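#random but structural
TW: two for the price of one
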Amino acid sequence: MNRHRSDSHALTAAYALNALDPGEREPFTDHLSRCEDCRLEVAEFQATAARLAAAVARQPPAAMKQRTLAAVDGVRQLPPRSSTTLSPVPLRGTLRRKAGRFAVAASVAAAALFAGLAAWQSQESRHYEQQARQIEQRLDDVSTVLAAPDARAAHGRTSNGASATVVSSALRNKAVFTAGGLPAPVPGTTYQLWLDHDGTMRPAGFIQQDGTVLVDGDAADAAAIGLTVEPAGGSTQPTTAPLLLMDLPA
């Protein structure tokens, strides 16, 4: 990925995803020490990637703990195997042996916990595997745009005070939109993205609140990106004044 020095600000997303070449990462790391805007943007991209990865996380059911503890109480401790008669051991050896028994008991408890988790996960495996694949695909799609050799970034601010960044790639014909500090929409409404094609605003997806999304549609043929508040489910044309209307980076 070769870039001109003037494009340093466009490397924030690729840096956050560890997508820079070794020869680019060191100069950009030095650039970060002098550029507060880039440091903030890198932090936002890293937080967004973490939120996307965490979207598949799920807490085990509350009854899992009780089932695990009950299983531990009913597990019998096996005696150690030994073919020789041992001489009396000092107190330190006794303590070590007891500690070893506690370790074995802990291992049994961990095994019971993992067995319970496996049973619980198998019941909903299809759903979560599908969800994980979808999120993985979204991460791959976003990473492909951010790491594209012709990726360019533009920055703006919405009328309700949120920061906005769009990264577009003509080679990939895609764009990625990131928002930070976007207030939660009023119940019954959603934030909808738009692409401006020769003066016609076409639906380009949704963003729930803070985060990063892949913009729907042909970004290479669009001149600008917009953001409005629309009824839940979206609209075919904007129905409110734009919160943001920003030229796509050339």
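TW: number two ↓
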Amino acid sequence: MSLLFSPFTLRGVTVRNRAWVSPMCMYSSEQGRPNDWHLVHLGSFARGGAGLVMQEATAVVPEGRISPQDAGIWNDEQAADYERINRFVRSQGAVTAIQLAHAGRKASTYAPFRGKGSVPADEGGWKTVAPSAAAFGRYDVPVEIPASDLPGLVQAWAEAAQRAIAAGFQVLEVHAAHGYLLHQFLSPVSNLRTDAYGGDLAGRSRLLVEVVDAVRAVIPDATPLLVRVSATDWVPDGLDVEEVAQVSATLKEHGVDLVDVSSGGNHPDQKITLGPGYQVPFARRVKEVSGLPTAAVGLITEPKQAEQVLAEGSADAVLLGRVLLRDPSWAHRAAHELGDDVTWPPQYERGRFPREQH
């Protein structure tokens, strides 16, 4: 059996393989509630053989949505809507996961296929918040969050985590990447505070650690907790992989089980060096320093490439995004190409690759 199709266990959850679905915003929710689109979208990946299927960035408070059409889990009605989606995903043998998020200064923006920039109030937009009153590019200037408001925000993450567990999610991820709120606190280019939540790395990572502690405290011990990070801002004097690796080592002490390593998103002048697997070295470095398992993401598109990432020890799982939008059954194709014999849904058996054509 290939490494890609070997099972992987975190706490009390065993995932059938290491080809996982990266959280991808669909900008298709209504009042934060998922619908038939999400059922088919996420269900297709589970039917297609992915090991873990992660729901998109899901806001813990209304003002934490990236767009007015973003997913949310700040109330019980939203959580209840995920139950049928999770039932189907689990019925196909996949593990259900959710990314809990707050967009901070990058909230209240148009969905990519609806427009650009900040959404005005008369179109359903709202005032954004951030660690400092510094805008992201041409987005609206946010309000600096008073320190007195941060405990309530931490509690919102904890309550969202409880709803996620009640809705049937088996794995939770805290979103601290891509220029959203927790990344904004982590990065010196967006966190200009001089209080206990700014300054050195300990101060800038304080809110993330508090969120992790609050979530870990309210979910079952058997539930894995992941954190997605941006390993670099791709700008001078920005957050870098060595700082992120140090933060990850701290997160290990606070009950995090795996770090999902991405990059960028926090500065409009970022200069990203793109190429196949361009973020894999970051995952490797975070793993080396922190001692935590990692997941790699970013232009990992071919089965042999994914297998190599695991074989060289850079990561323990790969997260797939755009390639799954093109081919929701990527995992089944990958198993065939790597010579693995995996279970297909009986309804799809007639379409499986002939075994002799590995």
